[in-house]
Give the backbone structure.
Amino acid sequence: MISPIEGFSKLTKEEKIDWIAKHYTVDVATTKRVLKTYWNTDSKLQKLHDEFIENTLTNYYLPFAIAPNFLINNKLYAIPMVIEESSVVAAASKAAKFWLNRGGFKTTILGTEKVGQVHFMYKGNQEKLRLFFDEIKPKLISSAILLTKNMEKRGGGISNIALRNKTADLKNYYQLHCTFETMDAMGANFINSCLEQFAKCLKSEAKNSTLLSDPEIEIVMSILSNYVPNCLVKAEVSCPVEELNEDASFSSDVFARKMVQAVEIAKVEPYRAVTHNKGIMNGVDAVVLATGNDFRAIEAGVHAYASKNGNYTSLTDAKIENGMFTFWIEIPLALGTIGGLTSLHPLVKVALEILQKPSAEELMQLVAVAGLAQNFAAIRSLVTTGIQQGHMKMHLLNMLNQMGATEEEKKKLVHHFKEHTVTHALVNEAFQKLRSN
Ligand code: MEV
């Protein structure tokens, strides 16, 4: 039996690897070799990565790719994507090319408001608490002046603090619901620091207050919210229905109708909506990761937004009106292009440079477009050829690599499967046949 280890974090990297390989893996030498294979030979770069998190053993690679030809608000972009799933980048590129000749993508920022809350308990008189809050609100804001000074210089800061009475949901529960503008920063540290300051100020003002009969305010926690329904961006594509005529086996009318039907299904059917939105997140997460943003925050916020009316539903919408097909997305995205990993990770810097050093607002628009493009590509395949054809073709290389095919063999088999259905069994059969010739 393996016993717990004391002081693992204090071991050197080599010692950590030795320990984990010895205690948790069978082939110790192979584990150690594989882990070390991924070390970077540039020791400075390696150290940088080691220090991003704790207990680092090695690096975990994901492909960094480019989907070119995105025409967004009449400007051409090549979008960096970091993702492991075959066919996502190909699908994005295909959708970009499709819309390149049809006016491209149009985007609008609908809001940039970030949110944070101080959660607290109060047993006393509700009306007196409200009067007390009205009185101290300016003090709460000014108490954070040292934190907000720089943000204000950049045009951001605290937008509002509201007292919310949540006692109908939970006994004695109130919150300071705070909104912020954080400009090009995602703003998590700024917001959390402000909130902790508000909490401190609230507590001390309550103690000194003559208004509150029971001055005891119990702060439970202060934290930003990743639900940002007013940090919202819209991306859209539109063209005459007759221009949707890429696939000879479908008339553009039928194609447009089926696209709209597919979206309508995702709007009413949560089982479909989750997969539909997962496809959107293939594009969103890939760009969010490439640009060093927090994809867990984005995921959590986006899915909460997809359920904002009580039912989980599609993030995209589509319509046919006066012969025009329009397809759009509205998605909350709290992103940053300064701070965090954006100035630390060399690949993130390159990604942002490729994107022409976007502001946070511009990045919101690019990410929304990546999500919309991905959804368009997925539904387009689903309502025409089915998803497996393209997916398995892309997966072919993974299978061939797993089987140990040489470059020459891969070339021959990729050529062969241009005309044949790809399944694991058929690929294996063709591979064995080629080897035995
Ligand atoms: C696969 O990663 C994503 C899709 O399932 C999305 C969809 O069904 O819309 C293809």
Remarks:
- The longest strand covers residues 64-72.
- The chain has 15 helices and ten strands.
